[in-house]
Amino acid sequence: MAGSVAALFRLTAGHRPCVAVATALTLAASALGLAQPLVAKHVVDSSSRGEPPWPLLLVLGALFAAEAAAGAIGRFLLDRMGEGVVRMVRHALVSRLLRLEMRELDRRRGGDLVARVTADTTLLRDVVSQALVDLVTGCLVSAGALLLMLWLDPLLLLLVVATVSLAAVAVALLLKGIRAASEHMQDSVGAVAAELERALGALPVVRVYRAEEREARRVGERVDSAYRSGVRAAKLAAVMSSAVELAVQGSFLLVLVVGGLRVHGGGAGSLGDLVAFLLYASYLVLPLSSVFRALGLIQRGTGAYRRIDEALALPEEPDRRPAPAASPAPAAVPPTSAPAAVSPAAPGPSPAGPGIPADPAPPALELADVRFGYVPDRPVLRGVSLTVPRHGLVALVGRSGAGKSTLFSLVARLYEPDAGTIRFDGRPAASLGRRESRAGIALVDQNTHVLEGTLRENLAYAAPGAGEDEILRVVRLARLGPVVRRLPGGLDGRLGDRGGTLSAGERQRVALARALLARPRLLLLDEPTSHLDAVNEAALARTLSEATADCAVLVIAHRLSTVQHADRIVVLDDGRTVASGRHDELLTTSPVYRELATAQVLRGPRR
Ligand SMILES: Nc1ncnc2c1ncn2[C@@H]1O[C@H](COP(=O)(O)OP(=O)(O)OP(=O)(O)O)[C@@H](O)[C@H]1O
Fold first, then answer.
1. What are the boundaries of the region Disordered (predicted)?
2. Least packed by Cβ within 10 Å: which of 263, 264, 351, 555?
3. Which domain holds residue 46?
C-alpha cells in the first residue's frame, strides 16, 4: 500500500508547487470548517445565557463562505494537476509505444497498448487528483479534530476511536480484494480494445464468413469479464463504505447517549461542549471516511498504474547497439551455384556481379553471412550474402516463407541480425545509428501502408518538406494521375482509414510514389507489382529502371516482368542465398530458380 502511494506521489513531480497550494487551500478550508463548531458552541452557549447571537452568526456565515471559496479553488487546482499528470503520462506512453522494439511489439496486442494510453490514464487521473490529496488532507484534518476532541472530552474521544478502529480493520481487509478486482478489470478493458481491434481490422472477413456473432461473443466475453470485476470491486467498496458509515453512526449514537447522560446528570461539560464535540466527531469522521475512500481509489488506480508503468518500462529501440557476433570477413559463400555476385568478397572483375559494370564506390548495400531468427533456435535467415550496387536493380526471388521480407526488415533495421554484417555504402550498420541507416532508405512493404489523411500528406510522409513540383513528379512516375483527378479535392482529398477509399493497386502506387519522393539511396520494394494490371506493371518496370539512375533498387519479385528487368537476380532458399545471376543464366545454373520459374511461382503479367 505504501508503495502504491509512493508511486502515485512520484507522478506528481513537476506539479508539487500546485499540489502544495491546493493542499494548503484544502487544509485552510478544513480549518475554517473546524472553527465553525467552536463558534456554534458560543452561539448555543450565549443563546442559553439569553445574549443576542447575531455577531457570532455573522462570523459563522463568513467562515462558511471562506471555506467554500478555498475548497473550490483547491479542488480546481487539484483537477488541473490531475489533467497535467495524465497529459504527461500520455505523452510518455505515446513516445514509448512509437519507439518500441519490434520484437516487443510482436509480442503485444495493439488494442491493449492503446487502452493503456486511454482507459488506464483516465482512471489514474481520478486517483492522482482526488485520492492523494484526500489522503493527505484527510489525515491532517482528522488529526486536528482528534486533538480538539481530546481537549474537549477524552472519554468521548475514546468511544469514537474504538468504533472507527473497527471500521479501519474492515477497510484493511477489503482493500486487497478491491485492488485485485480492479487490476483484473483494467486488464479486461485492455483485452476488449484488443479483441475489437482484431475484429474491426478484418471486418470484410468477419462479414463474409458470417462471424459477427462469434466475434461479438468473443469481445463480449471480455466485456463481461470487465463487468464482473467492476461489480466485484463495487461490492467490496460498498461493504467498505457501509462499514465506515456504521462506524460513523455508531460513534455518533454512542457520543450522543453517553454525552447526553453526562450533561443531563450534571457531569462534565455543558450542552455547548456536547454540540461542539458532536460537530468535531462529524469533522473527524468525514475526513476519515474520505481517507478510507482514497485508499480504495488508490487500490483501484494501482491496477491502472501497474499497466501504465509496465508499458513505460517496455524496451525502446535503441538508436545504436553493440554489433552482434559479426563474421570477421564476409567470406561465407553459399554453396553450390552461388556465384561471385552473392559474395561481396569473392574475387572477379566486377564485385557487383554479372550484368552490372564495375563501380569503384562501395555498394549501396552489402550483406555478409547474415543470420537471424525472430525467436531463439528458430532461424529464418541462415546465411545471406548479397550486394546491391549503387546504381542497379537487384531482384530477390524465393519460395514463400524463404525469408525475403525478413531480409528487408533487417536492412531497414527493424530487427538486428543475430550474426553477420550489413554494410550501407561500405559502412557497417553496427557503427551507424538506426536513424542514420534509415535516412537513406525507402521501403514499400507488402502491406503498402496508407495512413488516414490526404493523398498529399501520404506522399509527403517520407519528405515533409517536398515541393509541389516534386510531388507532381512522383504522381506522374507512379501513374497516380487518374487517382488525383478522381479524388474529391485532388491531392488534398482524404484517403480514409488505412487508405480504404483506394484500390489495392492504387495503394501500392501511393506507397511507391511516397518512396520515390524520399529520393533514397536504397529503394526496397516488396513485390511492388502484385496488385497492378499489365499496363501499370510495364510502366512501373520502366520507372524502376529509371530509378536506378538515382539510387540502388532491391526488389522482392514474384513476377517474371520484374525479374526480367533486373540487372541481377538473387535466389533465396530456406534462409540462404543459393544463386545469383541473370534470368537466362539462372534457368540453366540454378535448379531452385528453374523450379520457381517453371512452377510459375514467378508469374507472367496479369491479364
Ligand atoms: N514477426 C514474425 N515473428 C515470427 N516469425 C515470423 C515473423 N515474420 C515472419 N516470420 C516467419 O519467418 C519466415 C520467413 O517469413 P518472410 O515473411 O520473411 O518470408 P517471405 O520469403 O517474404 O515470404 P512471402 O514470399 O510469402 O512473403 C516465415 O516462416 C514466417 O512465418
1. 317-360
2. 264
3. 2-197+227-312
pLDDT in tens, 37-83: 788 888 888 887 777 778 888 888 898 899 999 988 988 888 888 88
Looking at ligand 1, which residue's alpha carbon is closest to its atom 1?
Answer: 106
**What gap in Å lies between CA 575 and CA 286, rounded to an integer?**
70
Residue 334: which residues within 8 A CB-CB, separation 6 or more? 342, 343, 383, 385, 576, 577, 578
Instruction: Report how far ligand 1's centroid is from the alpha carbon of 311 (Å).
Output: 27
Mean pLDDT of 32-40: 82
* CA pair distance 221, 214, nearest whole angstrom: 11
Residue at 220: amino acid letter: G
Cα-to-centroid distance, 508 and ligand 1 (Å): 20
CA of 402 relative to ligand 1 center, distance in Å:
7
What percentage of the chain carries pLDDT values higher than 70? 89
pLDDT of residue 354: 46
CATH (domain of 162) = 1.20.1560.10
Residue nearest to atom 27 of ligand 1 (CA): 400
Summarize pLDDT for 499-514 with one digit per residue, the tens.
667 888 888 889 989 9
The residue among 132, 104, 17 whose CA lies nearest residue 312 is 104
For ligand 1, the distance from its centroid to the CA atom of residue 392, given in whole angstroms, is 26
pLDDT at 554: 94
Ligand 1 contact via 580 beta carbon (within 6 Å): no
Could you tell me if the CB of 569 is within 6 A of ligand 1?
Answer: no
> For residue 249, which of 239, 260, 241 has the smallest C-alpha distance?
241
How far is ligand 1, taken at its centre, from the CA of residue 397, in Å? 14
